[in-house]
Amino acid sequence: MDTRRLYSFVKIVDAGSITRAADILHIAQPALSQQLSMLEAQFKQQLLIRSKRGVAPTEAGRALYRHAQLILRQVDLAHAAVDVSGRTPAGSVSVGLAPYSMGAALALPLLRSVRERYPEILLHINENFGGVISEAIMTGRMDMAFIYGAGPLRGVQFEPLRTEDLYLIAAPGADIPGGEGEVALKELVDVGLLLPSRIHTIRQVVEAAFQQASLQPRVIGELESVLTLVSAVGADLGATVLPWSAARAILDVRNLEVRRIVEPVIQVKLSLCTSDHQPLSEPAHAVHDLFHELITDFG
Question: How far apart are the C-alpha atoms of 271 and 58, rounded to whole Å?
Fold first, then answer.
């Protein structure tokens, strides 16, 4: 298998045009078309559908595209491993962090630790939803992620690390029920809540708890930005629900009311996720170990 043909094929699919791909690769279009023809001959399948608008992968082409990405990533990792063999870990490491989670609170400590211990590692941090992050891990575009949930999910290995209780967060002096640092779930039915959209695990867990209690949450706004959420809660535009680690990070910079939700206690599981079919590179292993250290130190 000539990996150069696979690389060219991936570029053609990404560009949606053989002409554009030839420009990107700085090779003549006839030569690129010949590489594609040889690839189709090798697999005995039509890989692309050509039209006036460009090219699009066939079903076989989409399958090859997915595998080609994995193969090319493995080749890159092999080159990187050989290059840094016997030296300080070096290279790029991509880490995904779920918003509203301990992972987000660990972002700066992780970046600081990587810079101090492994200055040759280029750390890429992506804060996004669990579904988006897990898909990136499956396709090899991300090395690891700290997200909610404990699986199972095809292509992703979950390493459960922590279980956290959920807390109600509100502005100082806000008219919220409960006392002594706790609030019963049934007392929240009239509290206006600002929550992430239903794609987020926090929202799903909160709504499931209300449903099991035959109650309905009063959601008055959906906010995906943590900064906007904190500002809105601080302005007493509504309350929110967060795990303790995320709440504590906010309390470091804001004076807010915090009450643990009880009757029942609502919990979320946090896991460190990696691909179940791609080994971690040497620099990714180093970052993985740092993650464990930071989580252990995180009270």
Answer: 36
Query: What residue type is 249 in one-letter code?
Result: A
pTM: 0.63
Q: Are 201 and 236 in contact (CB under 8 A)?
A: no
CA distances from 293 to 108, 120, 299 (A): 14, 20, 12
Cα-flanking dihedrals φ and ψ of residue 42, to 5°? Answer: -65, -40
Return phi, psi of residue 58, to 5°: -75, 180
Q: Exposed (0-12), middle (13-18) or buried (19+): which is 87, by Cβ within 10 Å?
A: exposed
**Which three-class secondary structure string do you get for the chain?**
CCHHHHHHHHHHHHHCCHHHHHHHHCCCHHHHHHHHHHHHHHHCCCCEEEECCEEEECHHHHHHHHHHHHHHHHHHHHHHHHHHCCCCCCEEEEEEECCCCHHHHHHHHHHHHHHHHCCCEEEEEEECCHHHHHHHHHCCCCCEEEEECCCCECCEEEEEEEEEEEEEEECCCCCCCCECCEEEHHHHCCCEEEECCCCCHHHHHHHHHHHHCCCCCEEEEECCCHHHHHHHHHCCCCEEEEEHHHHHHHHCCCCCEEEEEECCCCEEEEEEEEECCCCCCHHHHHHHHHHHHHHHHCC
List, in sequence order, every residue forming a beta bridge with 275; answer none if it has no partner: 156
CA Rg value for the chain: 24
Return the structure tokens found at 183: 């609030």
* First and final C-alpha spacing in the chain: 50
184-228, pLDDT tens digit by residue? 999 999 999 999 888 788 888 999 999 999 999 999 999 877 788
Residue 220, token pair as written in the block? 């008055």
In total, the chain counts a number of residues equal to: 299
Write the pLDDT tens digit of every residue in 28-71: 999 999 988 999 999 998 999 988 888 999 999 999 998 888 88
